Amino acid sequence: MKKIIKIALFILFAVAVTGLMGFIYFEQGKQTIKQVVIKINREGEKGFLSEEAIKRMVSNYDSLPNQKVNQINTQTIESAISTNPFVEIADVFISIDKDLVVNIEEKRAFMRIFNRKSDGFYIDHSGNLFPLSNNYTPRVMIANGYIDVIPNDDKINIYDSVYADTHLVDLFELTRLINKNKFLAAQVGQIYVNSRGEFDLVPLLGNHIIKFGTMEDAGIKLDNLDTFYKKALMSEGWEKYATINLKYKNQVICKRK
To answer: Which residue ranges form the domains of the chain, and what is each CATH number?
Structure first.
């Protein structure tokens, strides 16, 4: 008998709690949104996105603060914002204070590509392609020259088969290797793909060209370049050579001006 009473009391308690939570949810749903809070997460103060751009992506944005909580579809707002090519992740929710919070992770450019027609696009840290912006130009590695790539709207990653015969994967990997070396990352500003399909590096300091060649032994070549810069050019001067050739195994061959 006692066991039956305990079960009955537990059921009554569960029903009461469920009813109370339902009532609270119903009452909260009738409350109105106080304000819309937009948060754009990125590395610096400036970026591809602005609050005004986010507002334009959300239909009836100005009327949102007057709408009731139960009239807001956060998933619809997330979907609308996520269509923007500069948005990595969009998270929209209603806070305890009844603020509609729009939390956005902005895409981070890893490198900028210009094809043979000078059409440009970015590649992010995951290898995804996205367009240039008129509002912001980040300081990243630039690659140009004989690059025959036209971005495909349905294929947005460099590892998609449509880009298999292009230089995108090699350019991405070479940039990654350069960026691992802080000294070279600060020194090398551009990768040029020449007519033979080999890579030339263009430094930010010094009027010379670095003939890198193919990706074979890429890590060793960059180590040799790092050593040469620190031991030779920093003592002899940055303007002494016209070319620095890394194409030959374990050698750095320079041509004077």
So the answer is: 36-106 (3.10.20), 109-256 (3.40.50.11690)
